[in-house]
Amino acid sequence: MGTTTSEGRRRDAQGTRRRLLEAASALFAERGYERTTVRDIADRAGANQALLFRYFGSKRALFGEVVAHDGEEQMRSTPPDELLQAALRGMLAHRGREPGSRALATLLRSVGSGDEIGTAVRSISDDYARVLASLSSADNRALRADLALSWMLGIGMMRVVVGKEPLADADPDEVCALVMVALGTLLDGLPEMPGQGSAQGQGSVNTETSAL
Length: 212
Description:
The chain is mainly α and about 210 residues long. The chain has helices spanning about 1-30, 40-45, 50-55, 60-75, 80-90, 105-110, 120-135, 140-160, 170-185, 195-200.
């Protein structure tokens, strides 16, 4: 009887922890770190705030686990040569429903939150950059990967956070096609996208960049 009760409590604890993690993932992606409160997370998860601190210790620790979990899920479920496109589409389409599509949106929404979340942001950025670097055979592939990731995050910032037109309302497929053409000059391991030729025709990247 005691064992059954103990197992039931363990399952309840795991379920509550999972709900808190999922609620935090969605809220951080929607609002960013600063604008998301512990109360918001607990309310969405249908849990007590005290349980959040019991399972995660602090809001900062919870943020770190959310970013790591969501980023790892996307990297685990996406082939390396499709990661950049998948991450970009996730930001452009404002999906944010699957944890794997939330990692970079969370970073965008949390920019400016200071050193409190700096470690988590640097860690997930480094993880993405390492995967992207594997797509290039160039000696400076680490730099190329950082440039590609930084540019993509900048695009996401202008579209999602700033709302700069015409980018904010541009068709995700068109934006993705144009961006991937340009990123192909940095990371030679990116696959050619369907319709990439037409994207080049609309405004081709200077051929001198092919020498990069």
